[in-house]
Every structure is written in structure tokens, then in C-alpha cells.
Write a structure and sequence with these properties.
Oligomer: single chain
Largest sheet: 6 strands, mixed
CATH class of the largest domain: Alpha Beta
Strand content: 15-25%
Structural class: alpha/beta
Shape: globular
Length: about 350
């Protein structure tokens, strides 16, 4: 009898310890942007962000500011010299900066629990990382749906699913309000959104893919993206000034990913060919806002870019004050930035775009 009781106690202890181990080390699976189911025995504590679009991934990662200590290394691919992440993370400088194009040899010694990459990096680096036993999660940001999915993936990885749902809900709320304010317009405006870069003594002009966020934002606002029929679906399509003149847009929005859109617009206003074209057609030429990155991109700031476009096209419905107010609310809610930092560090850099 005593042996039986003793055996039962031992079994209960074993089962109890096993259940406790399961609670302390939960096993779970996350589906990434490529539809892969990635298995985890615990939430990762040492995370590396690498590859193309590292700044974009980092910006989305920091929508979960309480988890910033889990990020141990970031590949150096910043668009801007402005260090936005160092403003919102006092320990950011302690993160290891990986060389651009870092491979397994540089990442593996860091001993990461997880490496986050965009989907296009699977063949070039993702497969090699997995071969040496490093977990990889892929995200993608080409459109609004993929952006929301990426936020939810990061929320799952960081044990912050509630925060992820709240972030997506807030994006959806703001987006819905912008669309509602600009809906049912009697006049459809012809809009050209172009990436302009300086080359030699001239300029290079490119338009985005028909499937990309930039095109969709224009269409959502019930305007006509004049480049749509000429744009290829795979990426940026190069065009020339003759094509721009033939399209005859009413509004031209200029993008520059090095932060020089305002300088380029001022140069175009003085350029002989552009000056004649703009004056004759009375075209509204505007520089796309840029603080730490350009607002047209599928970055966390895409909602600011959409609000700004709405202001340019429908100022009577979306006034400047609404966009400025949104900027303040955005950095306050999405990144928990203090109002004094927003006023002193962020707003002065974008005021010239209005």
C-alpha cells in the first residue's frame, strides 16, 4: 500500500514538473510572409534584423518599444544620416551594427535566436542561415495588407499580439477616416508621382509599380495615377521628360530617397524645360515629405504620406492642421515619443513641405 502511494506521488511530481516545463517553455508556431510555419520553443531573446529593407523592418520593430532590448544587431542600410531610432531608444547605440551585405559569417557568431528578413532575401542569405540552425522569419511590406500582416508577425514573435492588434486597428481607423473625407469627389485629378534623382547634369525619372503602395494610395484618394498604363509590375519604371509632358498631369509629387525632394523641386522650378511646362499647364509641383525617411514608402509612416497627399489634392477636406496633428499623434502613439521631442526634433524637419 505504501509503495502504491509512493508511486502515485512520484508520478504526480513528474507530471507536475512536465506541465510546469511546458508553461515555462511554451512551444508555438508562427506563419511568416512566405507562408512558412516557423517553430519556437520560447520567445526569442536575441534578434537580428538584416538584409534589404533593414530600416523598414527596424521601424516596424520599434512599434513595440518595450521589446527593444531583444534587438541585438541591425545591418547598416539607413537611408538617412538622421538617427531616428537613437531618439526613441536610449540604448540604440549599444546595438551591434552589421556591415552592409552581412552574411552568415558575421551573423552566426552573434548567436541570435531569430533573424528577421524581407521575403526577397530568402535565396541570398535566409537559406544559408537556416542551414547553420538559425531561425529566420520573413516579412513583406509592398502593400497595406502585407504591412498589417508584418505587424501581426512581429507581435507574435515579441509576445505582444494585443499591441499588434491595437496598432493595426489604429492604422485602419485613420485610413478609413481619410478615405471617408475624400470620397465622392466630383472631379478626378490626374496625378504623377515620380522618383527623381540627379545624374550628371540632368535627372532620372522613375514611376512605381502599379501594384505598389504609392499607386494604391493615389487610387484610394479617387485620383488618377497617370503612369499606370506605362508602369511595369516588377518595380520602378524609368521614364523621360517627354512622357511626363504627354501625360499632362495636374499635380506632380516628387520623391527622393536621399532626402532631397525639396531641393530637386526648387531646381525644377528654375529649369528651362520644366519651367515652361509647369507655367503653361499650371501644374502643382510638390516635394514629398521626408523626416527620417520618405513618407511615400511602405514604411510605418505610409499613413502620414497618404494624409499629406489628401491635403495636397483636397485641402478643403484635409487641411494642413489635420496633417500636423496626425504627425504629433502618430509619433506619440505609435512610438511613444515625448511631445517636446516631436516639437523640437521632428516637426521642424517637415514644416517646409507644407
Amino acid at each position: 500500500m505504501k509503495k502504491t502511494i509512493f508511486s502515485i506521488i512520484i508520478i504526480c511530481l513528474i507530471v507536475g514538473c512536465t506541465n510546469l516545463a511546458k508553461i515555462e517553455n511554451p512551444s508555438f508556431s508562427i506563419q511568416d510572409a512566405l507562408g512558412r510555419h516557423v517553430e519556437f520553443t520560447d520567445f526569442p531573446e536575441r534578434i537580428v534584423i538584416a538584409g534589404k529593407q533593414t530600416p523598414t523592418i527596424s521601424n516596424f520593430f520599434y512599434l513595440f518599444p518595450s521589446k527593444s532590448d531583444k534587438l541585438v544587431a541591425i545591418e547598416n542600410r539607413s537611408q538617412s544620416k538622421n538617427r531616428f531610432l537613437s531618439i526613441i531608444d536610449k540604448d540604440f547605440e549599444s546595438k551591434l551594427a552589421l556591415d552592409k551585405g552581412a552574411g552568415v559569417e558575421q551573423i552566426s557568431p552573434i548567436n541570435p535566436d531569430l533573424v528577421i528578413l524581407v521575403s526577397s532575401m530568402k535565396e541570398s542569405i535566409g537559406n544559408s542561415l537556416q542551414e547553420v540552425g538559425i531561425n529566420v522569419i520573413y516579412v513583406s511590406f509592398e502593400n497595406i495588407e502585407e504591412i498589417f500582416q508584418a505587424i501581426q508577425i512581429l507581435g507574435s514573435v515579441l509576445d505582444s499580439e494585443t499591441r499588434a492588434k491595437e496598432l493595426v486597428s489604429e492604422y485602419q481607423r485613420i485610413n478609413f477616416e481619410i478615405n471617408e473625407e475624400t470620397a465622392k469627389n466630383h472631379k478626378v485629378e490626374d496625378v504623377l508621382l515620380i522618383q527623381v534623382t540627379t545624374i550628371d547634369n540632368g535627372y532620372s525619372y522613375k514611376v512605381p509599380s502599379t501594384e505598389w503602395l504609392q499607386t494604391k494610395m493615389i487610387e484610394d484618394l479617387e485620383a488618377e495615377p497617370v503612369w499606370k498604363l506605362a508602369s511595369l509590375s516588377g518595380g520602378w519604371t524609368e521614364i523621360n521628360i517627354e512622357q511626363i509632358i504627354n501625360w499632362n498631369p495636374e499635380t506632380i509629387l516628387v520623391i527622393n530617397y536621399q532626402g532631397h525632394s525639396l531641393e530637386i523641386v526648387n531646381e525644377l522650378l528654375e529649369n528651362d524645360v520644366w519651367k515652361i511646362f509647369l507655367d503653361e499647364k499650371e501644374i502643382n509641383l510638390k516635394a514629398f515629405p521626408y523626416d527620417y525617411s520618405s513618407w511615400d514608402q511602405p514604411d510605418t509612416r505610409w499613413i502620414l504620406g497618404k494624409a499629406w497627399i489628401a491635403n495636397i489634392l483636397y485641402p478643403e477636406k484635409i487641411p494642413e492642421s489635420d496633417v500636423i496633428g496626425l504627425v504629433i499623434d502618430f509619433y506619440s502613439y505609435f512610438y511613444t515619443v515625448e511631445e517636446t521631442i516631436i516639437s523640437n526634433e521632428i516637426l521642424p524637419g517637415i514644416s517646409t513641405f507644407f
